[in-house]
Amino acid sequence: MKKQLSDTVEDYLKVIYKLSTEATPVSTGRIASELGVSPASATDMVQRLAEDSPPLVDYRKHQGVA
């Protein structure tokens, strides 16, 4: 069964993909700025995406997202 992604998750993944074409890893601050959310909210979402099964992103604290 294929997992359905929420619009919010899709928005985060699109921004991460877009920013990763410029530089990898992508900082959560840049993600937050692009989406118009607080850095804490972006970090929280990225951590959830990394802990998902299977993980949707590779997140390393103080390094960023790939």
Describe what you observe in this structure.
With 66 residues, this protein is mostly helical. The protein contains three helices and two strands. Strand 1 and strand 2 form a beta hairpin. Helix 1 (7-20) crosses helix 2. 18% of the residues are buried.
Q: Let me know the average pLDDT.
A: 92
Helix and strand element order: HHHEE
| Number of H- or I-type helical stretches | 3
Q: Roughly how many Å is the radius of gyration?
A: 11 Å
Q: What characterizes the major β-sheet?
A: 2 strands, antiparallel
Basic shape: globular
Structural class: mainly alpha
Low-confidence stretches: none
Total strands: the figure is: 2
Helix content: 40-55%
Strand content: 5-15%
Strand order of the largest sheet: 1-2
Counting copies of identical and different chains, the oligomeric state is single chain
Measured between the Cα atoms of the first and last residue, the distance is 26 Å
